[in-house]
């Protein structure tokens, strides 16, 4: 037989794959993709029956080892429970029988803390709340005058230099560089995630840029306006649905968090699998009175998602939400959906998908991992496109984690 | 006894070739385990050629000749790709703990494990890889 046939069987939480045929260079990719899909669907315990596999090559071994490593890294398990003589002979040659035929140390029903907390169900999505040790509150700092964006009215006196810090998160408009003049033609949406800063240069390059702090080098940015907070997260919320095709809108996620925590004002960092993003970014720097938001210029000066974008990608977002905004704050915020009391502002970075641990996930670890090993694909200011008939609606997510910190007070630092 | 096969540089040629080798094994009376080892080594050698030997996207031919004499099977694989000598590769350290082992590099290791002898030569801009195994 030249092909590989995979039959899937569910045994409780475990998925058994009965494979028949050849596991060679031609078919190894099929098995790899098959298991990738299972992981995306949330199946983290996978066993293989390879009794019907009469041929295994190094390409096949590579798939087996890749998935063993994948699943082990997300606290799942991967194990071959039965194999043909040919398979065991080849695995013996490379001394991998032992490793692949014993379940990887299944972590004790890991960190059940998370499951004990309150939970809420919204449209088939379960939101689970857990309290984080040492969490507290934060002060939000609003800097600058976002309203100058519309007239491209920023000047050197409006800008300031900010430095990244381990536990600081921020979004706004800015550019990596040390002075207004240096950055003048590049100002765009930025996001600060701890020691890392990323922004979308509005110079027509249409490619995100980022800077990581390392040793003596501290990532810094010239900021036009921004919204800052410290990551003293008090809660972690995980949401997902048993239906892996279902998605949930950003406004529903925000309302869910609002309900579960009772916080009127909060900031968040969200790590989530996208179900299609709706957003914009500047493609022209808002200086020198340039026409940016006028028609037809905006077709060139602003990047829009013309359809839900980056489906199935991994997103890392920073946002601020309140149902009690004062006049000054309102300049920084937009209602999360028509007629909603809750207003907010959120920027999102987009990375290729990787499977995530279901529990014990560490925010700083994942930020470091994504920035240092993955490829930043896009940065978007998420919007809710509510135009009648033609509106694209809002960004959707498949599953995610939100680190939440309540805002205890606001400080507005006027520029200049 | 001798047989020649010519395949294109496409990965889906591998199972087709494997089928032909199995037929050949039956008619020449090559035992099944030896046949599997031949297919393993062939797949490693050929997939290396397909993935790494060509700098263009053109179609190339890979020639495979198999002969049997004095109970020894000799396979010669010829390709017109860039110079690539698998015998010069460092073997992966299979003594490392499972998690720390690199995923790549296993193919050449398997080839060395399954064959009695592997020789490489380069002539007229072609690579010649000779694999020998006792029946």
Total number of beta strands of chain B: 5
* Average pLDDT taken over every residue of chain A: 91
User: What count of helical segments of chain A does DSSP give?
Assistant: 10
Poorly predicted ranges of chain B (pLDDT <50, ≥5 residues)?
Answer: none
Number of separate domains of chain B? 1
Structural category of chain B is alpha+beta
> In DSSP terms, counting alpha (H) and pi (I) runs of 4 or more, how many helices of chain B?
3
Overall body shape of chain A: elongated
Shape of chain B: globular
Keywords:
heterodimer, A: 416 residues, alpha+beta, 10 helices, 39% strand, B: 135 residues, Heat Shock Protein 90, five-stranded antiparallel β-sheet, 3 helices
Ordered list of secondary-structure elements with their pairings:
The complex is a heterodimer of chains A (about 425) and B (about 140).
Chain A: E1 4-11, E2 14-23, H1 28-40, E3 45-56, H2 58-73, E4 77-83, H3 85-93, H4 97-100, H5 113-116, E5 119-122, E6 125-131, E7 138-144, E8 160-163, E9 168-175, H6 180-183, E10 188-193, E11 196-199, E12 209-212, E13 220-230, E14 235-241, E15 248-249, H7 250-261, E16 265-274, E17 279-282, H8 298-301, E18 302-304, E19 314-322, H9 327-330, E20 334-335, E21 343-351, H10 363-373, E22 378-382, E23 396-413
Parallel strand pairs in A: 2-3, 3-4, 7-23
Antiparallel strand pairs in A: 1-2, 5-6, 6-14, 7-13, 8-13, 9-10, 9-13, 10-11, 11-12, 14-23, 15-23, 16-19, 16-23, 17-18, 17-22, 19-21, 20-21, 21-22
Helix pairs in contact in A: 1-2
Chain B: E1 2-8, H1 13-28, H2 32-53, E2 61-69, E3 72-79, H3 106-114, E4 117-123, E5 126-134
Antiparallel strand pairs in B: 1-2, 2-3, 3-5, 4-5
Helix pairs in contact in B: 1-2, 2-3
């Amino acid at each position: 037989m030249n092909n590989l046939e995979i039959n899937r069987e569910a045994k409780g939480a475990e998925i058994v794959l009965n494979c028949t045929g050849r596991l060679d260079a031609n078919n190894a990719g099929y098995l790899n993709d098959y298991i990738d899909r299972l992981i995306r669907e949330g199946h983290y315990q996978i066993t293989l029956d390879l009794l019907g596999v009469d041929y295994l090559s190094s390409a096949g071994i590579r798939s087996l080892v890749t998935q063993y490593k994948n699943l082990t890294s997300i606290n799942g398990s991967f194990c071959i429970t039965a194999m043909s003589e040919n398979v065991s002979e080849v695995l013996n040659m490379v001394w991998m029988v032992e490793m692949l035929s014993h379940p990887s140390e299944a972590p004790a029903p890991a960190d059940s803390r998370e499951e004990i907390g309150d939970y809420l169900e919204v449209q088939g999505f379960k939101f689970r709340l857990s309290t984080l040790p040492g969490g507290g509150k934060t002060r939000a700092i609003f800097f600058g005058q976002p309203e100058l964006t519309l007239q491209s009215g920023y000047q050197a006196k409006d800008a300031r230099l900010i430095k990244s810090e381990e536990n600081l998160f921020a979004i706004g408009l800015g550019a990596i560089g040390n002075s207004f003049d240096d950055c003048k033609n590049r100002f765009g949406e930025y996001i600060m995630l701890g020691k890392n800063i990323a922004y979308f240069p509005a110079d027509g390059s249409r490619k995100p840029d980022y800077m990581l702090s390392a040793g003596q080098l501290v990532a810094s940015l010239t900021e036009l306006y921004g919204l800052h907070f410290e990551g003293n997260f008090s809660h972690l919320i995980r949401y997902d649905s048993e239906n892996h095709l279902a998605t949930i809108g950003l406004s529903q996620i925000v309302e869910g968090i609002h309900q579960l925590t009772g916080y009127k004002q909060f900031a968040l960092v969200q790590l989530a699998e996208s179900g299609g993003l709706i957003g914009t970014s500047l493609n022209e720097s808002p200086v020198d009175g340039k026409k940016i938001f006028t028609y037809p210029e905006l077709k060139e000066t602003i990047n829009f998602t013309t359809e839900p974008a980056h489906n199935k990608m991994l997103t890392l977002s920073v946002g601020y939400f309140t149902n009690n905004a004062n006049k000054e704050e309102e300049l920084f915020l937009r209602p999360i959906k028509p007629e909603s009391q809750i207003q907010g502002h959120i920027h999102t970075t987009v990375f290729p998908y990787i499977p995530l641990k279901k529990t014990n996930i560490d925010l700083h670890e994942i930020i470091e991992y994504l920035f240092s090993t993955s490829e930043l694909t896009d940065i978007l200011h998420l919007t809710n496109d509510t135009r009648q008939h033609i509106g694209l609606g809002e960004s959707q997510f498949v599953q995610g984690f939100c680190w939440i910190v309540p805002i205890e007070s606001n400080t507005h630092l006027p520029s200049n | 006894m001798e047989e020649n096969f010519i395949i294109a540089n496409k990965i889906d040629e591998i199972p087709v070739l494997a089928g032909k080798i199995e037929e050949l094994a039956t008619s020449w009376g090559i035992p099944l385990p030896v046949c599997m080892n031949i297919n393993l080594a062939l797949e490693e050698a050929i997939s290396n050629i397909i993935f790494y030997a060509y700098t263009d996207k053109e179609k190339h031919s890979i020639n495979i000749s198999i002969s049997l004499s004095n109970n020894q099977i000799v396979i010669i694989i010829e390709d017109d790709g860039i110079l690539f000598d698998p015998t010069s590769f460092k073997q992966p350290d299979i003594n490392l703990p499972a998690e720390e082992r690199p995923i790549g590099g296993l193919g050449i290791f398997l080839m060395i494990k399954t064959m009695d002898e592997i020789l490489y030569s380069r002539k007229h801009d072609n690579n010649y890889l000779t694999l020998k195994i006792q029946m």
